[in-house]
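Appendix B. Raw example, untouched.
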Amino acid sequence: MSELAWQKSSYSGQGANCLYLAIASDETVRLRESTRPDAVLAVSRDALRALIRGVKAGEWDDLV
């Protein structure tokens, strides 16, 4: 796998538990969390977009 250009989410702030994103050569979005950088989640852009829309719409508010 080629080296990924990780970018920290602007919502992560300065502390721990930061979310990092990168676009892989296969166009999938890679996500990792700063406390477990070796655990990388690969998702399609469409799947990530649907997740973000669902979170913003409150679709999973009753789960927390």
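End of appendix B.
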